[in-house]
Amino acid sequence: MKTSTIVAATVGVLAVATVGYAIYFDSKRRNDPEFRRKLKKERKRTQKLAAEEAKKLSNKSAQTVEEALASISDEDFPTSMEEREKFCMEQLSAGEALFTQGPTKFGQAAICFYKALKVYPAPAELVMVYQKTIPPEVFTLVMGMLSKDVQSKQEKYYTVFPPEEMNVKVEEKPEGVAADGQKVTRRGLVATKSFGAGQTVYSEAPVISSLEPSLEGKDFCHYCLKQIVDEASKVPCSKCTQVVFCTEDCRKSAAQEFHDILCTKDSEDASSPERSLREYTKTTRNLVPEMLAKFLVKMVHEESLNSGAEYNSFDHMERLRYLEITATAEEEKEMELLKVALGSNIPGIDEFITEERYLLMKGRLLYNLYGVSTSLNVDHDVEPLPERHRSVRDAPITGGGFYRVTSYLMHSCEPNAKIVFSENDHKVSIVTTREVMAGEELLVGYIKNDDLSTESRRLELFTKYRFRCMCPLCETTD
Ligand SMILES: [Zn+2]
Ligand SMILES: [Zn+2]
Ligand SMILES: [Zn+2]
User: pLDDT, tens digit, for every residue of 14-69?
Assistant: First the structure.
């Protein structure tokens, strides 16, 4: 291997990368879903390669990887574009000088190549260069480090989420045995401190919520689903007569997060994209497509805020349990409606909404959707929602909500907690129904089970949520 190989190959990449840097640091491009999609795709491919390479590591090399990562764990990497580029080139030359000195320096060489990778704007491209130019042993070490790093970001997720003040953590729990004898686990929410009966464990606002379509534009807020009792306090949308809000704050939040883009603007044209989506929701009464449209718009909005949060809404959603669905004509239609409704405002959304991704997102929403009940007086004759949603209430459902933390609550026919909408809006509170000790799993009812036999409860739960209920009530009355 000639010393100049990597630098030569990398200079080629860096020439592209200088443009790459400019693009990378240009916030407009960074917020472009198309650009982000490409980066994400490359990242995925690199991660897969890293995981494969990591498998080749011997015990001794695995130890080298651990030590190497530990040695740079609190190192600061440069932030400015020029510094990054300089740092990158330095590490590349150093790495190259080291590996030419033979196998005893391979570990140190790998550290340099890994550091270069950390600051390089398009790591996937650099990995391709490495693959062709550095000795396989060193390459395996670098990829081992990358794989370990990705893994720790994954593992770290549940140590920082849910936030401590919510008094719960996500834990793996046994969920019976599969047909092939393998133990099945699922994730559930465990209380981190003890609670007496009737106490609130936490409250949580949804990522996205939607009103039952027949209530839209009447006496319920389009943003927080609250019933508006006082006619005088109604706040209209400034561009349409389709929706109303309970306060100016709700109007503003909705406008910023999703409504500015999804507003029908009272278009006379029945085929206007936003109106088509609205009409579809009205006729089918399926909330999920519109909720997904809101979710996607909100996601782009969050990205543009650039809050520096380590995990975005998509990262949160990605980890949730989902319902496996196959595409029917209905899903085809929904995807089309979404693409058209968002397309003119979010460039690149077309390619983002692939069939695979749409089905996964829809499956996640369907599995984790809660019926929201915010009626103050029960004179609203609302038919039950056709889509599956978790609910045990008698009060009419005023809409649906999708929550980050509450999605992890598992079902029991003898729950120790319940879902309460204490402020009569879409914010959910988890309230204990008996004493709950620290370390105990919090469980709610997904279905109303007052008069159901164990067999029918289990059937309904299995049909809707794909698990066989093993709660004490089901097990003792089996
Ligand atoms: Zn409101
Ligand atoms: Zn509007
Ligand atoms: Zn049960």
Answer: 444 433 333 333 444 455 666 666 666 776 777 788 888 878 878 888 888 888 88
Tell me: the pLDDT tens digits for 123-164? 777 888 888 888 899 999 999 888 887 777 777 889 889 999
> How many angstroms is it from 467 CA to the middle of ligand 1?
36
Boundary-marking domain end, from 114, 138, 153: 153
Burial class (CB in 10 A: 0-12, 13-18, 19+), 180: exposed
432 located within any domain:
no
Indicate if 362 and 218 belong to the same structural domain. Answer: yes
Q: Are residues 74 and 140 in the same domain?
A: yes
Closest C-alpha to 107, from 79, 67, 163: 67
Residue 109: Cβ within 10 Å count: 24
- The answer to whether 436 touches 183, Cβ cutoff 8 Å, is no
Domain-embedded: residue 80:
yes
Same domain, 329 and 237: yes
For tokens 């893994």, name the residue: 151
Q: Are 131 and 261 in the same domain? A: no
- Which ligand sits nearest to residue 275's alpha carbon? 2
The pair phi, psi for residue 69, each rounded to 5°, is -65, -40
Distance 261 CA to ligand 2 centre (A): 9
- Can you state the angle between helices 329-343 and 273-284, rounded to 10 degrees? 150
- Report how far ligand 3's centroid is from the alpha carbon of 453 (Å): 10
Its domain, for residue 97, covers 4-153
Residue ending a domain, among 319, 345, 370, is 370
**Cα–Cα distance between 312 and 319 in angstroms, integer?**
12
Domains identified in the chain, total number: 2
